[in-house]
Amino acid sequence: MTVFSELRMRPATATHAGWNASTTARLVISGAVIFILLVGANLATPLYPLLQSSLGLSSLDVTAAFASYVLALVGTLLVAGHWSDHIGRRAALLVAVLTGLAGGWIFAEAQSLAALCAGRALQGTAVALATGASAAALRELLPSRPEWASRFTLLASSGGVAAGPVIGGLLSLLPGATTAPYVVHSLLLAGLLVPLYLIRARPAIVAPAPTRPLHALAPRRPSVSRLARGAFWLASGVGFLSFAVFGFSLSLAPGYFAQVLATDSRPLIGILAGLPLGASALSQLVTVRGRFTVPAGLAVLGVSVVMLGAAGAWHNPALLVAAAVAAGVGQGLAFRTVFNDVAARVEPARHAQIISTVYVITYLGSAVPVLGLGWASAAVGMGAAVQGFVLVCGAAALVLSAATLVQAVRPRAAV
After folding, report:
1. CB count, 10 Å around CB of 102?
2. Which contiguous run of DSSP H or E holds residue 265?
3. How many Cα atoms within 13 Å fall on the side-chain side of residue 34?
4. Are 243 and 363 in contact (CB under 8 A)?
5. What pLDDT shows up at residue 6?
6. 17 membership: H or E segment, kind and range
7. Cα–Cα distance measured from residue 250 to residue 161, given in angstroms and rounded to the nearest whole number
8. What is the distance between the alpha carbons of residues 381 and 76, in angstroms, rounded to a whole number?
9. At what angle do helices 317-345 and 226-250 cross, to 10 degrees?
10. N or C: which end of the chain has fewer CB within 10 A?
């Protein structure tokens, strides 16, 4: 099938043209698209202090730019999270790459808050289009190893978010600090268009009605089967909470860390901002099983988030690093377990739609609380706002840990 026939949702004449890629190559391409898109979406993290200075932005403006990305991502997931089921995974990923290229270019050339928000919104749209398609493609490529499909999904997504601030900080040392990172990223992203166009695509998993093909793309009310409902809400709750912490790390934390450490080194700020996500990504390579994995991971996340606030109050760099790493590990183990559980319970025909809905709630966690944090920073100062934020997030994680611990102990007590 050609890309154009996929986008029209019309079967093409049978052909053997195109690159008949191996399963390994398809895994790499599917993971690489979401990884590189998320790298681009988070290149700006260490650049925000520089943009604040050059464009005269406030802390609330920074959170608005960050939130525009998340809100566009969430809106697109709601509207188009199921599209790859009908147009095919390859077509959805290709459209995502083209949208990501446009968003990065607009953000890099932005001279106002409105332009920054527009670029960020397009980046969010691109990530949303790729999220369900990539996760579903990985699942289909590893039908007998669903746990590893979930691991690769979270490794690519968490790894991309973690690598973005680090790469952005390093590339900002080149001439044109706010544009050089996007030039390099655009070249890498454009390179993905070649294999995506050449690869021989697999047919869409749900063919639309021939008489009304566009009806299949209409927005759908989110729904979850009874079997997957409990796992869905647990995964969504853990995702919302953990991404509230990650949203802080990727928006206001760079300025906060710069104050705590009295540094203006963008590479260092980028590394610190990416530490929780990097630790979360690496935790996907560790095999930890057992019914206490989720409550233990949430407990570690809760304590570590509180320690992040303590490290800032005490101006302790070592505690800051340790707490950031521990928070990422705790989140990674807990979220992988609940994410894998819900993915295993969803029927293949609705996989992209349901996983996209999980990410809708998850990504709202990195927008709504962070907007509140930006408002609080303007009202009472960043230091006091961050202390309140970490206490609320830490307490919520510990409460959720206690609730999942009760669930884990209950079957044994009933025996």
Report:
1. 16
2. none
3. 27
4. yes
5. 53
6. none
7. 9
8. 33
9. 160
10. C
By the 10 Å C-beta count (0-12 exposed, 13-18 middle, 19+ buried), 388 is classed as middle
Q: Which amino acid is located at 376 in the chain?
A: A
410 CB burial (10 A radius; 0-12, 13-18, 19+): exposed
The DSSP-derived string for 212-252 is -GGGGGS-------HHHHHHHHHHHHHHHHHHHHHHHHHTT
**What's the one-letter identity of residue 395?**
A
**Element holding 23 (H helix, E strand):** helix 23-41
Q: Is the pLDDT of residue 395 over 70?
A: yes
Using DSSP's 3-state secondary structure scheme, residue 282 falls into helix
pTM of the predicted model, to two decimals?
A: 0.77
Written as six digits, the tokens of 185 are 């990223």
Task: Give the distance between the most distant pair of CA atoms in the chain.
Answer: 67
159: left (phi over 0), alpha (psi -120 to 50) or beta: alpha
Q: How many residues belong to the chain?
A: 415
- Specify the amino acid at residue 282: L
Asked whether 73 and 169 are in contact (CB, 8 A), the reply is no
DSSP bridge partners of 199: 19
DSSP 12: P
Q: Do residues 270 and 45 touch, judged by C-beta distance below 8 A?
A: yes
Complete DSSP assignment for 382-399: HHHHHHHHHHHHHHHHHH
pLDDT band at 223 (very low <50, low <70, confident <90, very high): low
User: 10 Å Cβ neighbour count for 105?
Assistant: 16
The answer to whether 362 and 239 have CB atoms below 8 angstroms apart is: yes
Helices 368-380 & 59-80, crossing angle to 10 degrees? Answer: 170
- Apex CA 32: angle with CA 28 and CA 35, to 5°? 140
Using CA atoms, how far apart are residues 254 and 62, in angstroms rounded to an integer? 11
Which tens digits make up the pLDDT trace of 6-22? 544 455 544 556 777 88
Q: How far apart are the first and last CA of the chain?
A: 55
Q: Give me the half-sphere count of Cα atoms (radius 13 Å) on the Cβ side of residue 402.
A: 5
d(C-alpha 36, C-alpha 75), whole Å: 21
